[in-house]
Amino acid sequence: MLRVVVCVSGGGTNLQAIIDGIAQGAIFNTEIVRVVCNNPGAGALERAGKAGIESVCVSPKDYGNREQFEEALIRSVEEAKPDLIVLAGFMVKVPAALIRKYENRIINIHPSLIPAFCGTGYYGLRVHEAALSRGVKITGATVHFVDEGMDTGPIIMQKAVEVHEDDTPETLQRRVMENAEWVILPWCINLIASGQVKVENGKVTVAE
Asked: Cα(30)–Cα(97) distance, rounded to whole angstroms?
């Protein structure tokens, strides 16, 4: 059984996609053992509660400095003894110590086709605003392993989404979530749970 900790900051729509994927049998041999959130007002905490999943809130406002916050964050993750950590809309830079300990065992979902519109400052609606401003015709989402850079880890899977002429950042965000994020994130977790994902020389291969 793959033990998963999901880290979230907001409404938890990607968390819900994982919960639903497990419930519907699209994700096999997997259990969400804890949800870790940095925002006490996040809707993701309510979603976790409804699904009967243990949740922990670790807010930076509750700690005197960044080091204390990161120590508490690391503890909250490690207490759950995860096999995989999933960043599902987590707006916190993951501590380097955690990344090193869980090398190639932390994945993130990003709402663009990396390397486009990623890195520092590209999150939430800002990604879709940038895509529309640049006039791209195709955008999408990417699931990748997390390294010590920002959106620079090995790419596991990407899915393209068409941009419409009349799109706003909000309509594009919704289409990317529905047609890409909620599809490939559960899919990637299932592949990892099945032992089909390997990382070699910084690149991902998926076994048939």
From this structure: 25
Report pLDDT for 19. Answer: 98
55: which 2 tokens? 């949740």
Any idea of the CA torsion for 82, 85, 91, 96, to the nearest 10 degrees?
80
Two tokens at 136?
């791209």
Three-state secondary-structure class, residue 26 = coil
The residue among 164, 186, 180, 184 whose CA lies nearest residue 18 is 186
Known catalytic residues are 110
**CA 195, CA 198: separation in Å to the nearest integer?**
8
Kindly report the number of other CB atoms within 10 A of residue 135's CB atom. Answer: 7
CA–CA distance, 89 with 124 (Å, rounded to integer):
8
Residues of the chain with pLDDT under 70: none
In 3D space, the residue among 199, 195, 111 whose CA is nearest the CA of residue 155 turns out to be 199
pLDDT at residue number 208: 78
Residues 18, 11: Cα–Cα separation, whole Å: 13
Secondary structure class of 80 (helix, strand, coil): coil
Give the single-character DSSP code of 61. G
Distance CA 179, CA 199 (A): 26
* Whole-number pLDDT of residue 15: 98
